[in-house]
Amino acid sequence: MLEDQKLRGVLCVDTNQKYLATTDTKNQVRLWNTHTWELERVIVTGHSRNITQVEFSHDGGLLASSSLDGFVKLWDVKTGEFIKEIQFKAPVGDVCFSPDSNEIAVILRPHRNHNVCKLFVFKLDDLEFQELEISFSIHNFSDSSQIVQFSPRADVIAVLSNNEIRIVETGTMMEEHVAICWSTNVDRNKILTSRDDYYFYNFDFSKDGTELLCSTLNGIVRYSTKKIQTNPRIISNIDCEFCKFSFDGKHIVHSSKKRIEGSTSVYPVEIMDTETYEISKPILEIERPWLINPSPSESLIGIQTTHARKLNIVDLTGLTVHVLDDFETDDWVFTFSN
User: What's residue 31's pLDDT?
Assistant: First the structure.
């Protein structure tokens, strides 16, 4: 009962304070004030294995941490207090709050050499849930990336696993869409073995929820989220490791695997206009960018480097706002509050 009272106290409570959440080697979560860049609090999560994701609710009141230890834990952002936890029998890959902050979607990692993932959607007030078992194809050419994301209208949930993107209806928890991660010349039932086939790194919903923006080996691709699929639209032929919409939806932030000319390890992070798809000059040229995350509510972009173990915070013009460089490992995640 006490946990429910705590949860009701932070659900749907708007906050003007913006935070950056990062993890550390002790599986703790650090909350940084994005106005002062001071470390405001450290959350001792108690996760026994690596944290796979930290995610703020859209109202800014809750923080979720997911881990390979099979737990998803909820925290009060203002106080850092523990609210409640959900335990699973498998490692957790990713978590995402619904736009109204009342539900949370969880994707579990499949067992080794297995192609079945489980998607759960929990109501936060009573933890009642729906679940769906999704069978993905197994490919020779894939990785372990997993992403789950509600659409802006919360009518569908997109799931990336095993190099496939699947769309699930939130009301029925049914797959009524065609899998959208294939080029027009790839048979979905065949194993991906070639770099000529699409290989997906990440995706992001457009602000109106009608399209998915996807980063692939063959470039940046936009797919319709309608049940009847049209041909994907390739908007860039750059081998793209990451792409996401900026906070205002007017730009695409992306990183390329094409090295800066004359360099062996420096890569560009660039901005693309969503109307013309013209690429501006790189906002940052950086050695081996590992993870990039734009703020959903401010003109800030976090860019993690692989070897330097630091996080560069820049704005949309490329101006460096702040640098966090006290991280002890490459194996950490970060996210901005809404």
Answer: 95
| pLDDT per residue as tens digits for the range 1-48 | 445 656 655 555 556 789 999 998 889 999 999 999 999 999 999 999
Residues 246 and 105: their CA atoms lie apart, in Å, by 23
Please report the DSSP string for 82-142 in residue order: EEEEEE-SS-EEEEEE-TTSSEEEEEEPPPTT--EEEEEEEETTT--EEEEEEEPP--SS-
What own/partner pairs with CB < 8 Å and gap ≥ 24 does 172-179 have?
173/119, 173/121, 173/130, 173/131, 173/132, 174/132, 175/132, 175/134, 176/227, 177/225, 177/226, 177/227, 177/229, 178/227, 178/229
d(CA 284, CA 269): 5
Residue 119's pLDDT band (cuts 50, 70, 90) = very high
Instruction: Indicate the pTM of the whole model.
Output: 0.87
Phi, psi of 2 (to 5 degrees): -60, -40
Which stretch of DSSP H or E encloses residue 331?
none
Number of H helices, E strands in the chain: 1, 27
Q: Note the pLDDT tens digit of each residue in 191-241.
A: 444 545 556 778 999 999 988 898 877 778 888 887 766 667 888 877 777
Cα–Cα distance, 232 to 182 (Å, whole number): 9
Owner of token pair 């860049």: 37
Lookup: tokens for 35:
């106005």
As a whole number of angstroms, the distance between CA 253 and CA 235 comes to 13
- Hey, what domains does the chain have and what are their CATH numbers? 1-135 (2.130.10.10)
